[in-house]
Design a protein that fits this description.
By secondary structure, this protein is an alpha/beta fold. The protein contains twelve helices and eight strands. α2 (about 80-95) packs across α3. It is globular, with a radius of gyration of 18 Å.
């Protein structure tokens, strides 16, 4: 049974959350990306709350700006350190010492999870990243790899001033291709049913400004056609190293995030395991939730 609640944080942000399991049990936190929301994790929340799968307390917040969570309008309110703070404060409401047995994250959620595990390694038992680039390899690929530059060009569309208006027009006509172009529809993996589409509409109807502000605030975008690239900051190495045991799930048919992002990852993440999944796309949590659950469970059981 999924519990749904609003959690007010000391920083003034309220996060709408979905959760399973008993409060006080070892904590697993799940972070979603764009254009998704916490509901994508429901099957995993149910799975890991069961005693035979660890009996965890599982919590999936909607990130600030998504669904019913607080949605500040100013772009600066979506800087990574502020979303990391949201997660830290949420964990402190669920765990006496603020520690998570596991932090599981996808897409934008992964961006904040990488940063969280770098800044607060003692608070993360294990880290699971699903198709979300590490900032070290992403910076390199955006700078040097034309294929990744092309694959990331959509980020500039989402950062433009009228993005929300364009995305919401005509029953989100420009949103559905994010899914269908990666085989989500009936002719592909089949998970994008009418029921799931309505779940997405309900999320998007709450507003898209917060989601678009993630793309506006980040300097990690490719150059616009015919223009010099943005100044992508080169972070010092100590801001990039993650010393938490980490499992990276990479669906190889992700059209937005190419496998080159895995090259050199072990240089930043010494305790790394990588699972490459062929015939799976960016939306692998929808496509193969049982595979994702089993692989995460096996990783959590390893010393």
């Amino acid at each position: 049974m999924i519990q749904i609640f609003q959690r007010s944080l000391p920083n003034g942000i309220t996060l709408s959350c979905r959760a399973t399991g008993e409060a006080g049990r070892p904590l697993m936190v799940f972070l979603h990306g764009f254009p998704e929301a916490a509901f994508i994790w429901d099957e995993l929340l149910e799975y890991f709350a069961q005693p035979e799968h660890g009996g965890y307390r599982c919590v999936a917040p909607n990130l600030r700006g998504f669904e019913q969570s607080s949605a500040p309008t100013e772009v600066a309110a979506y800087k990574a350190q502020l979303l990391i703070q949201d997660v830290q404060q949420l964990a402190a409401t669920e765990s006496a010492d603020g520690k998570m047995a596991a932090l599981v994250a996808h897409d934008w959620g992964g961006a904040f999870a990488w940063g969280y595990a770098n800044a607060f390694p003692e608070q993360v038992g294990k880290l699971v990243i699903i198709n979300s680039p590490h900032p070290g390899t992403f910076t390199r690929e955006l700078r040097d790899n034309p294929a990744q530059q092309k694959a990331s060009a959509y980020m500039n569309f989402l950062a433009q001033p009228k993005a929300e208006e364009l995305l919401s027009a005509d029953d989100y006509k420009r949103m559905w291709p994010f899914f269908t172009l990666m085989k989500a529809g009936p002719e592909g993996f089949g998970w994008l049913t009418d029921e799931v589409k309505q779940q997405y509409r309900d999320v998007w109807n709450a507003g898209l400004t917060g989601a678009c502000n993630l793309y506006r605030v980040t300097p990690m975008k490719p150059a616009l056609p015919g223009q010099p690239g943005p100044e992508i900051p080169t972070l010092p190495r100590e801001r990039l190293v993650v010393n938490v045991p980490t499992f990276v799930f990479w669906a190889l048919d992700d059209a937005a995030l190419l496998p080159g992002l895995l090259e050199g990852l072990e240089d930043y993440v010494p305790k790394l395991e990588v699972k490459k999944v062929p015939n799976a796309t960016h939306w692998i949590v929808h496509e193969q939730p049982q595979l994702v659950a089993r692989e995460i469970e096996a990783f959590l059981s390893r010393n």
